[in-house]
Amino acid sequence: MLIIKLDAIPSTNSYLRMLSSEKRLKDYTVVQTTNQTEGRGQRGTSWYSEPGKNLALSVFKDVSGISLKQSFLISIVTSLAVLRCLKTFGIPKLKIKWPNDILAENKKICGILIENVIQQHQYKGSIIGIGLNVNQITFNNLPQASSLKSITGRNFNFDELTNGILKELKKGFKNLEKGKIDDLKLDYEEHLFRINKPSTFKDAEGNMFSGYIKNVSDSGALQVLLEDGIVRAFDLKALTLMY
Ligand code: BTN
């Protein structure tokens, strides 16, 4: 396993993508920094992090064996890997907010951005980007954000966290390769934030509505029971879960 540690880098995902365009990468090639200056988030947002305080990690994984229809399983494996690792560090009240934010005490401590790459015109790979708030304690204008230190009052070692996440990621992909899909999905749904609770959503046009999260399909669509009794599936672009 190769871990490339960089003092500062615009985006670990972009760096790993650049490497993947130059040569065929081995599974679990990792780029890590604690000073990511132009981090990218989901839906074209940016991911800001105080220099030296947080972990930005990107991991390459060949996913040729996973069909496009089941590509959300990569998200499930990743969010569970972060969650299980953080559990071993004693972080309480961990949840996964659809599709793959990690919350502790109802606040976001980790964001995940998974991007696809094609290697050598043939091998399908995923760049799994993980941004974990570790030792930062002020989050101006982001009342819903938190960090490991905000929750526990202590500082964490970045390398220990990286190793812990990689260990769980490997275990998760092994389970996926063994076909333990139902177990993974069950574990994901057990940790899903607001499952079966009255929730408020915003659609792509900005309209708010209420419903109950029932489950998530293999492709990642959120199944919501609406007030008229109908269950509708929403994909990532169509919906934001507010609370
Ligand atoms: C989100 O919640 O919007 C996803 C944030 C993902 C941030 C991580 S940090 C490591 C990797 N490199 C990036 O540029 N983004 C991801």
UniProtKB/TrEMBL annotation:
InterPro entries associated with the record: aa-tRNA-synth_II/BPL/LPL, Biotin_CoA_COase_ligase, BPL_LPL_catalytic
The protein's UniProt keywords, in alphabetical order, are: Ligase
What CDD domains does its record include? BPL (cd16442)
Q: Which PROSITE patterns match?
A: BPL_LPL_CATALYTIC
Q: Which residues cross the membrane?
A: none
Domain BPL/LPL catalytic positions: 1-177
| EC numbers, comma separated | 6.3.4.15
Name recorded for this polypeptide: Biotin--[acetyl-CoA-carboxylase] ligase
